[in-house]
Amino acid sequence: MIVEYEPVIGIETHVELVTDSKMFCGCPAHFGADPNTNVCPVCLGLPGALPVPNEKAIEWIVAIGLALECDIAYHSQFHRKNYFYADQPKNYQISQYDVPVCSGGALDIETDGQSTRVRINRVHMEEDTGKMIHVGGGGRIKDADHSLLDFNRAGVPLVEIVTEPDLATPQQARAFAQELQAIVLALGVSDAKLEEGSMRFDANVSLRPKGTDELGTKVEVKNMNSFRSLERALAYEIDRQTAALAAGEPIAQETRHWDESAGITGGMRSKEESSDYRYFPEPDLVPIEISYALRETIRERLPELPAARRSRYGDLGLDPASIAALASGGAGVTERFEDAVVAGSDPKTIANWLTGEVAAFLRRESVELADTPLSGEHLSQLERLYAAGDLSATAAKQVLGGVMAGEGSPAEVAAARDLIQISDIGALAAQIDRVLADHPEEHQRLKDGDAKVIGYLVGQVMRITAGKADPKVVSTILGEKAEG
Asked: Do 327 and 309 touch, CB atoms closer than 8 A?
């Protein structure tokens, strides 16, 4: 008898918060500093150093919990999670166990037109570990000559979001991860950069006979640093477990490492149980009390979340791709879009610029939108110049790049780069006569009423005016000449 299996997937997400200082000390929590420069006796776990909780981090985990419809604990507590690993300077991690800040909750996702409600088990606060840098062997630990330790990340505020096993496909897992990232960005509590590790996903996957409720042996998959990696790793692991069960082989409860280049998972270690960590209350920290007033104040400050924003943007006539990109682009993108639309700009034009030229500029220059001077007012000014015919579509893109590079307002950039479009009929008529004189054969075809030659002649006018002629006006004049 052939047994048909179905996957059961749960996701554990770690989100680094962008607080100014670390979770339990005053060290900077910023990415990119020289190795082991953002450290102190507290985050290095030196004897006698005492932790002090970061109040802003507590407020932000409450915000995440409220956005995920969680119950917020009035009383919460930190625990010590005891384990030894080279990137763990204290040989334990300050985390939470049976009294997390947030519990329950849910997040709705959509795949292939179908909605799935993913239940949230818990959202708890902890500190991040350090970072290991494997030298040689392509950066992989198994092939490295040696490893280096950077403790700058140790102690950075880290929120762990754990789902129930409600996901059934790799596609659903990817949709969940993307929606969660969009929420975190909307809240402004993390930059959620997968490539820098400020948002990381671990997946628990098992198989069970289809139609049954009992869960199979769980395997945890790590090292998935993109949405594509998450989907590919789960697809591979499901196939691997399916083949093993079909061959009568048992599934080991273990942690496996996703190898992006090889496209496979490999065994790392046996999977720990909670008892292996020997949790006990953190003796150096008092319990956390989260008042009703604080919780409600944070609730009132919550921004519009991506799902609600997508619904509202749908009423503006935007295409689904633009809606998804804008709604998940973070507070900076949506703020600039909405400021421009409120100022009277065409939503489709602004959306196309933000998801096209602006996004391309940020990737090309490796900068954040917040690091550029571009504002919603700039976008609105640019759209007005374009709508009035003062800028061609090509020139508008060049002006946008100049604004983002700090060259000034759209009008200033357009003037400095000599990009203002020529729309004056008298000036264009003179340029058209020059082109017709230089192209007698095409001129004769035009006089004979051959409208097909107009496109070529428009191109010649654009060439001699360095692209500044208004092609619509030129085409209209030529069309009138073709009609005699």
From this structure: yes
